[in-house]
Specification:
By secondary structure, this protein is mainly beta. It has a single domain, classed as Avidin-like (Lipocalin, Beta Barrel). The chain is built from one helix and ten strands, in the order H-E-E-E-E-E-E-E-E-E-E. It has an eight-stranded antiparallel beta barrel. It is globular, with a radius of gyration of 20 Å. The relative contact order is 0.17.
C-alpha cells in the first residue's frame, strides 16, 4: 500500500512539474510596456501548434520618421512576422514593416528580432535581446529578401521589458 501511495503521489505531481518546466504557450494576445513601464506595444501570436507560427506586433505612436531622418508619410502599422519555440518556455521572433514616401515608394524596411520567455502563470512575457535594424531600400541593388544583406542602421538594442497576456 505504501508503494501505491508513493506511485500515486508521483503520477499526480508529474503534470505540475511538467507545467513548470515548459508547457507555457506564446500563442495569444499580449499588451506590452517598454523598459520604463510606458505602454508601448501589443502583439498577437498564432500558429498551428505550440512550436511556431505567425505574429503581429503593433507599435502605436512609433515615430516612423525617426526624428525627421526619413521623409516618409506612411508605414505598415503592424510588423508582420514569425516565431518559433527555442526551449521549454522560450521563443524567438522576427517581424518586418516598411515605410513609404508621399509618392508611395518604399523608403525603408524595418526588422525587429528578439527572444521571449513566458513566465509566471504563463501570463507574463519577458522580452529580451530585442534588436531593430533599418534597411534603406534601393531596388536596383537590394537582394530579395532585403535582410540577406547588412542593415544600413543597426541593429539597435532595446532594453528588456515585459508584456502581459490579454485574458477574457
Amino acid at each position: 500500500m505504501k508503494h501505491l501511495v508513493l506511485l500515486l503521489t508521483a503520477v499526480l505531481a508529474f503534470p505540475v512539474q511538467a507545467f513548470a518546466n515548459g508547457s507555457c504557450q506564446y500563442i495569444g494576445s499580449w499588451f506590452g510596456y517598454d523598459a520604463d513601464e510606458n505602454l508601448a506595444w501589443t502583439s498577437q501570436a498564432v500558429g498551428p501548434n505550440t512550436s511556431g507560427g505567425t505574429m503581429l506586433l503593433e507599435l502605436p505612436g512609433f515615430d516612423i520618421t525617426f526624428g525627421g531622418l526619413f521623409d516618409v508619410v506612411n508605414s505598415t502599422g503592424n510588423l508582420k512576422g514569425a516565431w518559433e519555440r527555442t526551449g521549454g518556455n522560450t521563443f524567438s521572433y522576427a517581424g518586418m514593416s516598411f515605410a513609404t514616401n508621399a509618392a508611395g515608394d518604399a523608403v525603408y524596411a524595418l526588422r525587429v528580432t528578439g527572444d521571449l520567455e513566458v513566465v509566471g502563470n504563463c501570463d507574463v512575457l519577458r522580452v529580451e535581446n530585442t534588436w531593430m535594424s533599418i534597411y534603406i531600400l534601393d531596388p536596383a541593388t537590394d537582394p530579395v529578401p532585403v535582410w540577406e544583406r547588412s542593415p544600413d542602421i543597426g541593429p539597435l538594442p532595446f532594453a528588456p521589458h515585459n508584456g502581459y497576456r490579454i485574458e477574457p
